[in-house]
């Protein structure tokens, strides 16, 4: 739970479209909401940020304390985060920078906010620099008016994340393969990025399937009992995909040294199963949801 001071900053931020007074007057602040690594509950933290390209940089300074802040541990466990910036609110995947990229970005932060250099000098740990991608202003979210539209939105996000995991994995392995000479290959710099994106994808997919099995499918079966074989097939596919997710997660634990062929095989297997599953679900389920309003009417 935020301290009384932090909560007052959060309240003022939300009441004034991101503008706050006191010691943070004129500062570039955002609110970062993470999911607790141990509790699973949302935690909101006011943080300074620096804009960089199409993203925002935040630093796990913890005021130079010897340990990383709680919000950093949270986003490593749950990479999908909520960002409030001015009067804008969006979801993104938090990706800690690593290696030379981290050093370059930290120098960029220090150039705009020199106090972070003092925090780094006060501790032996390397202050993490986290990249929060901004939403693409050229791709406004379509208006969702039905449950069919919402399901399509979720499926589109899952397909997009999986495609990015494939692309980043190939870049990672290409960088490893390019190493020549003796000694250990330098880190390609995409290990954490792949981990965060793949973990966010797997967690979102698990939540989506759990929600379907626990709520949507039972409700729909009550209205369409003749489709029970369809729902049984979808539940079986959920279990099969979950098993592949577990194998992929095990590989991700050591992505920096993972065998490329094995990793590609597991990723391809899950991609093919998931794509076939989403295609089948859309063909059988979407027509039934076209007239179900979204968001649900309040009771």
Automatic annotation (TrEMBL):
This is Nitroreductase/quinone reductase family protein. Signal peptide: none annotated. Residues 150-289 form the Hemerythrin-like domain. It catalyses: oxidized coenzyme F420-(gamma-L-Glu)(n) + a quinol + H(+) = reduced coenzyme F420-(gamma-L-Glu)(n) + a quinone. It comes from the Bacteria. InterPro entries: F420H2_quin_Rdtase, Hemerythrin-like, Split_barrel_FMN-bd. PANTHER family: F420H(2)-DEPENDENT QUINONE REDUCTASE RV1261C. Coiled coil: none annotated. Transmembrane segments: none annotated. It comes from Streptomyces cyaneofuscatus. Belongs to the F420H(2)-dependent quinone reductase family. SUPFAM superfamilies: FMN-binding split barrel.
């Amino acid at each position: 739970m935020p301290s009384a001071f932090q909560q007052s900053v959060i309240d003022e931020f939300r009441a004034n479209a991101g503008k706050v007074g006191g010691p943070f007057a004129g500062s570039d602040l955002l609110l970062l909401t993470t999911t607790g690594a141990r509790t699973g509950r949302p935690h909101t933290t006011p943080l300074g940020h620096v804009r960089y390209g199409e993203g925002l940089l935040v630093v796990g300074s913890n005021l130079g304390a010897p340990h990383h802040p709680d919000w950093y541990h949270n986003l490593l466990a749950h990479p999908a985060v909520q960002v409030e910036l001015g009067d804008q609110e969006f979801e993104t995947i938090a990706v800690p920078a690593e290696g030379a990229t981290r050093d370059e970005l930290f120098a960029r932060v220090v150039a705009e906010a020199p106090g972070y250099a003092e925090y780094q000098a006060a501790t032996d740990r390397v202050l993490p620099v986290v990249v929060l991608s901004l939403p693409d202003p050229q791709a406004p979210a379509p208006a969702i008016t039905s449950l069919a539209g919402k399901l399509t939105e979720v499926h589109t996000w899952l397909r997009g994340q999986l495609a990015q995991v494939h692309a980043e994995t190939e870049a990672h392995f290409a960088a490893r393969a390019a190493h020549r000479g003796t000694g250990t290959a330098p880190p390609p710099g995409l290990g954490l990025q792949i981990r965060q994106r793949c973990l966010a994808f797997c967690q979102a997919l698990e939540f989506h399937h759990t929600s379907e099995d626990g709520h949507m499918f039972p409700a729909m079966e009550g209205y369409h009992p003749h489709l029970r074989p369809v729902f049984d097939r979808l539940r079986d596919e959920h279990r099969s995909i979950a098993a592949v997710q577990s194998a992929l997660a095990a590989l991700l634990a050591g992505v920096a040294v993972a065998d490329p062929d094995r990793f590609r095989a597991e990723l391809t297997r899950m991609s093919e199963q998931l794509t076939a599953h989403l295609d089948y679900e859309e063909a059988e389920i979407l027509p039934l949801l076209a007239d179900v309003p979204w968001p649900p009417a309040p009771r």
